[in-house]
Amino acid sequence: MGFVKVSGQDIDIIVRRDNLKGAMQSDEVEVSLIQKSKTAKRKEGIITRIIRRGISELVGTVELNQKYAFVVPDNPSFGKDIFINPANSQNLQNGDRVIVKITQWSENNRNPEGMITDILDASKSGDIAMKDILLQHGFSLSFPEEVIRESEQLPSEIHESEIQGRRDMRKVFTLTIDPHDAKDFDDAISFQKLDNGQFEIGVHIADVSHFVKPGTALDQEAYKRATSVYLPDRVLPMLPEKISNGLCSLRPLEDKLTFSAVFIMNDQAEVLSQWMGRTAIHSNRRYTYEEAQAIIDGQSDEYAEILLKLNAVSQKLRQQKFKDGAINFSSDEARFILDEFGVPTGVEIKENTASHQLIEELMLLANRKVAAYVSNIQFKNKAIPFPYRIHDSPDLDKLKPFAAFAAQFGHRFDLSSPQAIAKSFNRMVENSSGKPDQDILHTLGIRTMAKAVYATDNIGHYGLAFEHYCHFTSPIRRYPDVLVHRILQECIDQQIHPIENMNAQCTHCSERERKAMEAERDGQKYKQVEWMLSHVGEEFEASISGVAPFGFWAVTNEHRCEGLISAQQMEEEFEFLEAQYTLVGRRTKNKFRIGQQIKIRIAAANLVKRQIDMEWIGNL
After folding, report:
1. Buried b (16+ CB within 10 A) or exposed e, 45-65
2. Short-list 50, 44, 40, 21, CA closest to 32
3. 3-class secondary-structure state, position 111
4. Nearest-CA neighbor of 84 among 58, 107, 123, 120?
5. Does an H or E element contain 2, and which?
6. pLDDT tens, 444-501?
7. pLDDT tens digits for 397-428?
8. Which residues of 160-228 form beta strands (DSSP E)?
């Protein structure tokens, strides 16, 4: 059977097998409701039309017989082999690993037809797996020829005529701070002192909307993708490389076209005035986060005074944000170090340092000021359709079990108001810092929260404690930011053309963002399994990260790799105490609770299933 998710409805519609009418995972469909008894808990429907297929390319294995060729997809949810026209199968061999593009869907629910677009190197299993992950989540591996042609036709040089009509800020000191392996630099910061003791900080963002015009093939493809996808060993960009890594990348010592939010501020990090519009900049220096952090920590540098002032401003903005009720859910992340073949050779912990916060807080400032500016403008006495980034307040039904669980670790929650809940979360984060329960409390706390999405109904951003918020700062990798730039320019020019289907565009961008996050998690999980292949039989300290009636999951403390300890492997039946996030052995009475520190052995690692099996050795 299948389930249809409808925007605005919390409960999915169930569709039984005979009523799927050929619809498959990720398809966009039209569904008609079937009359059911009033006591039924879930609505039931029948698919009446397939609007758009969610998957058009797959990784699979060729199977040949005397007359026909088929591709058996790796994606287990697809459920159908793909017929290959004999004219397209002449160079194929049985067992070939390929990418197949579906060219025709049969209306009578028979096998779809397809054509081979690439024969893969079977020895590069990691590369095939990453491509399969991207395709399974609906992201095409390449750009259509028309899109590439449009991008190649864009001029590579910026002529002075392009700068006319822009605010020329090329002589103002400007820097970028990015990861050491970044290729697309979509934001830069400028700084200059003013004679009255105040200072000007500019947040400069790549002017993607200058190059990507509505209605072009470039724009249509960017909207379809809606986001770049970041896997452990690659980036699948939203825009062709000429734009993302070339024209729009704010590389040092190059003139670039930007869209900027420029603020006059004082030492208290108060915004005294602001200006927004199109600019031209020239980045003087590129820093990595590590280089910037070393300067913040005291290392000498010719621009140390500027970096230290920017850091002071960002820390004051950060303090004010938390004072206003923002929730401090920052945590360290594990990142695999890969060799030239993409195979993990080590793990490093990515920390949220002051240099990261410097950029983060200035980007947040620009995002909320742009959203506030647009929210105050009306068109024909109505709010302008705009892709706000919203985050709803917590659902008490989800929060109460977590609050009871946190109380077992000594953390008390005040659930009397959204503001009190935020204070309780921050108190928990502060008091659990550096303790064994820190990661699991943070993870479970985030799970109780609503998911941030794009929407035209501006309810604010609860987690950041902002009344107005949007995404303005990453148009190279996020389509909503492109929309924000276009609408902002229309507001500045006072030539507003409201986008009628903005709600639908917000829903699409939120959905593609969710798919990208799922792909990124799957990619990370694959690398976890790949890493553990060489550690089968070894013992590690770990934290219990999840419980279910059939067993529990644990994450290694050193590598952040997650695996399952099954009840079957332990030869034990468990009582599942859901409200307490705990399992109790019916025979041994052993208790296993989320956050508990244990010792495990790696029993097996399966790349096909992306699964690590662990054995429980004992408690720590």
Report:
1. bebeebeebbbbbbbbbbbee
2. 44
3. coil
4. 58
5. strand 2-4
6. 888 889 999 999 999 999 999 999 999 999 999 999 999 999 999 999 999 999 998 9
7. 889 989 998 998 899 999 999 999 999 999 99
8. 167-168, 174-178, 187-193, 199-206
Q: Where are the beta strands (DSSP E) in 490-566?
A: 539-548, 551-556, 562-566
Measured N-to-C along each axis, helices 289-296 and 304-323 cross at an angle, to the nearest 10 degrees, of 90
Cα dist from 148 to 151, 236, 243, 251, whole Å? 5, 15, 10, 22
pTM: 0.92
Decide: 372 and 470 in contact? Cβ < 8 Å. Answer: no
The pLDDT of 29-54, averaged and rounded, is 85
Q: Give alpha helix (H) positions in 226-303.
A: 241, 289-296
Residue that the structure tokens 């909503």 belong to: 480
- The SS3 assignment for 71 reads strand
315: helix, strand or coil: helix
- Residue 286 has phi, psi (to 5 degrees) of -105, 130
Beta bridge partners of 52: 28
CA angle 526, 528, 533 (to 5 degrees): 95
- For 408, the token pair is 């077992």
8 Å CB contact between 237 and 164: no
- State how far the Cα of 427 lies from the Cα of 418, in Å rounded to an integer: 14
Domains recognised in the chain with CATH numbers: 2-52 (no CATH), 57-122 (2.40.50.700), 147-389+464-520 (no CATH), 393-449 (no CATH), 536-619 (2.40.50.140)
pLDDT in tens, 346-403: 988 888 899 999 999 999 999 999 999 999 999 999 999 999 999 999 989 889 989 9
- The pair of structure tokens assigned to 512 is 């593609």
List the beta strands (DSSP E) in 560-610.
Answer: 562-566, 574-577, 582-585, 591-593, 597-606
Tell me how far CA of residue 604 lies from CA of 540, 558, 563, 572, 617, in angstroms: 14, 18, 9, 20, 15
Of 587, 609, 583, the residue nearest 598 (C-alpha): 583
Q: Which tokens go with 453?
A: 């999405």
pLDDT digits (tens, 9 = 90+) for 79-124: 789 999 877 777 888 999 999 999 988 766 678 999 999 999 988 9
Q: Which of 63, 58, 129 is nearest to 99 (CA)?
A: 58
Q: Residue 243 and residue 148: Cα distance in Å, rounded? A: 10
User: Which amino acid, one-letter code, is at 389?
Assistant: R
Neighbours of 391 (CB within 10 A): 19
What is the Cα–Cα distance from 366 to 386, expressed in whole angstroms? 16
List Cβ neighbours of 563 (8 Å cut-off, separation of 6 or more). 532, 553, 554, 600, 602, 611, 612, 613, 614
Instruction: Tell me the CA distances in angstroms from 577 to 24, 515, 540, one per residue in order.
Output: 35, 31, 26
| Pair of tokens at residue 219 | 């724009």
Name the residue type at position 520.
E
Instruction: Give the side-chain half-sphere CA count within 13 A for 385.
Output: 12
